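Much of our argument rests on the idea that a fold can be written as discrete symbols. The record that follows shows the chain in one-letter code together with its fold in token form.
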Amino acid sequence: MSISPKICRVPPIHGKFRTVHLHPLSYRPLALLLPARALVYTPPLPSVAPPRDLRMAGHSQFKNIMHRKGAQDARRGRQFAKLIREITVAAKTGLPDPAMNPRLRAAILAANKANMPKDTVERAIKKATGAGASDDYFDVRYEGRGPAGIAIIVEALTDNRNRTAADVRAAFAKHGGALGENNSVSFMFTRAGIVRFPVAIADSDTVLEAAIEAGADDVISDDQSHEILSSIEQFNAVRDALEARFGAPEEAKFDWRPQNTVTLDEAQAISVLKLIDALEDNDDVQNVFANFDIPDSVMARL
């Protein structure tokens, strides 16, 4: 009587099963049918996925970087749009030559400080003086109260007074403030001309002496800059004299300086900064001035 060999499946080295013929009595592989090395089974290495936090860390970091970059680009775009509008209005309301137009010169200085390309500045001036200059913008000022009773002055350039007034009023109302009438808080500020130079141009005594000779009212020096204050009437003369002595300033503009400030705690500071951010995010708003002060200890926790 013939006995047929048994058949089973044995995994070889490469981790794949194949059919193997066994001896019908000993159940050992037939030597002619299966090499001896096939009896040793080495399973393939399992594919181990990295921990979830490691897999997602690079992705999350990239998304966070892209989100921050997008926010910075958006803010930079809004800043450029506001500067272009100021340059256009300054060139349109006066001469297109910065040497003969103080407002245009101040606008160009602000654009240079923001690293705006030179050709962008030139296009804005040409737009104001060219045939296509059809947009009419108006200087408007809004005054109101914010959280903790602080006084706020908002300067804007707009082609639609009703739209801008509604937007500014909504921002005040949403963040715990109230829009007031003209001159309701401006008496709490002093209108002044500001000329700012980097601290490296000279020591504080030299800058103070030059400012007094130029007719300035005050000098504030710190570890970053020299800030020279003047009256509105003396602003052009002071700026020109200091520019001839120290070169082009970092900034030269008109400012609203508070006569007194309100010190804020942490909760009040959060509310006030939200209102300031909401106002500055408006495309029509050029400048926001307020009479609050946040101590360094509170600022460190924000």
Remarks:
- The radius of gyration is 36 Å.
